[in-house]
Structures are given as structure tokens and as C-alpha cells.
Amino acid sequence: MFDITKMVKIMAVKVYKIYDSRASETVLATYNNLVFAQSPSGKSVGTYEVPVAPEGVDKAVLFAQKKVIPKLDFGINQKDFDSELEKLCGENFSKSGSAVSVALSILNLRISAYDKKKSVYELYNKNPKKEDLPCLLSNTIGGGLHTQNKMPIQEILGTSKQNDFSKRVKDGIQFYKSVEKNLNDKKIFFGKNDEGAIAFNGDYKESLDIALKSRPNNFELGVDFASNSYYKNGKYFFGNKKMNERKYLKFIESVIEKYKLFFVEDPVTENSFEASAELVDKFGKEKIICGDDLFVTNVERLKEGIKNKSANGIIIKPNQIGCLSKTKEVVDLAKSKGITPVISHRSGETCDTTIAQLAVGWKIPYLKESLMNGERISKINELTMIYNDLSK
Ligand code: PGA
Ligand code: ZN
């Protein structure tokens, strides 16, 4: 029998090739041009991530349009949707890639919210409070793969410890502007990198010194070392230093102590579960030692990390694992083991704000982003809206 309701659904959902903030190809999914979802992409990518589009975005879009969308119902229970999606997209989304699968997974969630006339966060968080808004970890000074300069550290981040969300945003912006002012005062030329972070040609010491000097009160510094990018054949090539693991760990410890870092991401390379555990052992009581490339939002890798006590923080990026249900499984496991989840943007972003909604919906204590550029501030503005709604 011809089923008109199903037919309407099939015709209403479409995917398109679009461009992200770096003008790289990615995917937008839409339902009747009323509900939208877009996927991001990374540059400093972990080996174990789901690839964005194994055969290119054009083929992925065609595959979705012909082989995936016609077989799916939208606006249904998220777990059921994602499990059907994975069957059609290949195990671990190997046929479609994450650009298609994440866009469709988010679209399903957004259609559910649309049908129920709710915000995405309200689908998960039944009693939302403004205390559920995350602390921000704002990328403010850039290096590594995101920047053409001489700093091997990928990101110098700042976080405000104020209770009130709007004050946290103000502190983050004040930090950014104060770094700009300090560079201007020294007549040092700077620009912006892929994530809108300040890019100048200082080494790691100059960069961290400026950051330390520019901090507002109640403010702490963090770092994403993204150490995969300077690791080769068992050695760390950090600026002009070449170090074996032992020497390198001592060096990292000295940087953490000297700059009073409170958040330390991927200090060691993606397979170093044991070396990372040494840092947790030394600093884990007061600081967050966080895995990004180490875990790639993968539940099996997180289990390995739990067994080895490799981290007390985990970066959460839905496109590393391909859909929202698998992402939530990782968040839930991390929380149950006292590991702090940090939901994060990618360097190639769109104006999709789902991660901001999920931060409140899933009660994730930190959101990593940057406060500059439309594709990044859109997440903060979404949180500001939620903050205002919850403050009434
Ligand atoms: P990416 O970097 O989005 O380029 O992978 C971000 C990160 O390493 O945290
Ligand atoms: Zn990272």
C-alpha cells in the first residue's frame, strides 16, 4: 500500500554538501527547510576517529540520499534511530563517514524537539537550572596544527571560575582582549587562527607568559598539547627540543607547575595510556588531565583509560564516534567513573549549536570553544539564551 505519511517524510529530509569555517566540505541535513543539522570536521584528528567522508563528501551525500534516508523514520527515539543509522551506514559508520551520520543523527534529535515544541536540552534535562550551564574552556592563543607559527602547543585555554554563566563569558572575553592589548603594547603582530584564537609568532614560553599576565581574577589556564602532532617514532619534537618519553614527561610536569595549569589535554600521544596515568597520579587531585585523541569519544578506549587510570577528563566530540547515542554512552560512563566530560567544537565548524544544547541537556560541566568568529560564538549565544530563559 502507498503510505503517504512515510512518503512525506522521505521527501522532506535532504542532505547537502556545504562548507565549514575552513571552507572544507561538510554536510547539512534538513527537514522541510524547517529543522537543520550540520557536521563539523577536525584537523588535529586522532587515528581512531570515524573518518569524515571516506570517499569524499559528494559520494557521501549521494549515498545518504539514495541508500540511507529512504529507509529511515525521523523524529523517533534517538537510540533506535542511531542503531538503524549505523546498520545502513556500515559498522562504525565506515561507509558513510561522520559528516553524513552526525548530521542525520542530530537531525533526528532536532525533529523530536520540534515535534514536541521543546528545546533540545529539555528532551534530556527534565528539571533544567541555570547551574546546569557549563564552565567555558576558551581557546585564546593558538599554535600547533591550527596555526602557522613556532608554538608546538595547539591551544592555550582560559576558564573562569565564577558561579554565574554570564560572568564566565565576560571573563573569557576580557582575557582574550587583554592578550590582544598586551601584544599590541609590545608591538607584536598577531592574527587569528582556524579556531579564532590569537596567533602570533611567539614560542611556548612567550605565549604562556602573556596568558598568565592577561588573566582576570578567578581565572585559570589550560592547555591542549595535542602532542600527536609533534610525536614521531618514539620521540617528542617540541620546538627545538627532541625528547624521549621520560624526559618529555618531566618537561610537561614543569610546564604544568610553572604556569599553574588547571586543565591539560593530550599531554602524551594517543596510545600512551600508561604515561598519561603517571600525570594523573601526580596531578589528578587538583587538575584535569584530559584525553582527546587518547579516547576519541570511544567507549572501548574509555574503558581502557579507566582500567589504567589514564585520565580524569575526557573530550566529547560527537563526530569522532559518528552519532549522538554512542556519544551519550561515553558521557554516561565517564560521569559514573568520576571522569569529567568536556564537550567540544572542532576546528572546522559550522553554526550548528547542538553541542551547546547537549551541554545543558546532558549536564556536561565544561564546554570547549573559542569566543571569536560566528561559528564559535553561536554556541555561546545559544547558551546565553538558555541562561536567560532559566534565569526567569
Ligand atoms: P581539531 O582540534 O578539531 O582540529 O581536531 C581540536 C582539538 O584537538 O581539540
Ligand atoms: Zn584536542
Q: Ends: how far apart?
A: 50 Å
Radius of gyration: 21 Å
Spatially, the strands of the biggest sheet line up as 4-5-8-12-13-14-15-16
**Approximate shape:** globular
Biggest sheet record: 8 strands, mixed, barrel
Number of helices: 14
Helix proportion range: 40-55%
Low-confidence stretches: none
Instruction: Report strand %.
Output: 15-25%
Question: What does the model show?
Answer:
- There is one protein chain.
- The chain is of the alpha/beta class.
- The protein is built from 14 helices and 16 strands.
- The protein has helices at about 5-10, 55-70, 80-90, 100-115, 120-125, 165-185, 205-215, 245-260, 275-285, 300-310, 320, 325-335, 355-360, 375-390, and strands spanning about 15-20, 25-30, 35-40, 135-140, 155-160, 190, 200, 220-225, 230, 235-240, 240-245, 265, 290, 315, 340-345, 365-370.
- Helix 10 (about 300-310) links the parallel strand 13 and strand 14.
- The relative contact order is 0.15.
- The mean pLDDT is about 95.
- The protein binds 2-phosphoglycolic acid and zinc ion.
Task: Provide key terms for this protein.
392 residues; alpha/beta; eight-stranded mixed barrel; binds 2-phosphoglycolic acid; binds zinc ion
